[in-house]
């Protein structure tokens, strides 16, 4: 049985490369069930002095790779080109370019069975699934979505993505000790999906891949093999 092909969408201040490094345990856990393929956002995050980037509002900065590897899928502060999950805004910057980048990744690297996103990437995955179900992106044909530390965007411009519950089967993963995206924010995304399964872990802001989580991931993926 061939493994499922899953497109992986990194978090804010990450890249496809850094996200791949951080999810090595997940790739090992799922190697018989899924091939994980990583995409990088086209939007570089401007370098800011450390005090101007509150750790509580942003993804942890990745390790080796430098500022050129720090990307985002949209900016909530259009002027500063920065992002905070809690920031309410009327409009965002960069979302169209990011959708186009995923469209190209699907064309060049697909087809994909499913899509996985982390943090801002998970919020972005919910939007991509909405575009798919509205038949606005004919290239997209994802059969399932895995959203880790996901949330509903606070941007008014994005509320059209949440008008109707999405039909795509989804697995929502979040940590009770997450200080970046509190579990309450991830729970607010659940009603946006008709068939939402949940995996709750005791940790913080990361993709869990302990042996205790294997069965939930595998049972979910087996539905599509």
Fold and architecture overview:
The protein is α/β, with parallel strands linked by helices and 225 residues long. It has one domain (4-222): Rossmann fold (3-Layer(aba) Sandwich). Helices cover 26% and strands 17% of the residues. The protein contains six helices and eight strands; from the N terminus they run E-H-H-E-E-E-H-E-H-E-E-H-E-H. The strands form two sheets. The chain has a six-stranded parallel β-sheet, with helices on both faces. It has a two-stranded antiparallel sheet with strand order 3-4. The protein is globular, with a radius of gyration of 16 Å. Mean pLDDT is 91; it is low at 51-58 and 60-67.
Helix and strand arrangement:
Layout (H helix, E strand, L loop, with lengths): L3 E6 L6 H7 L1 H6 L4 E6 L3 E2 L26 E2 L22 H15 L4 E5 L1 H14 L10 E5 L21 E6 L7 H5 L8 E6 L9 H12 L3
Parallel strand pairs: 1-2, 1-5, 5-6, 6-7, 7-8
Antiparallel strand pairs: 3-4
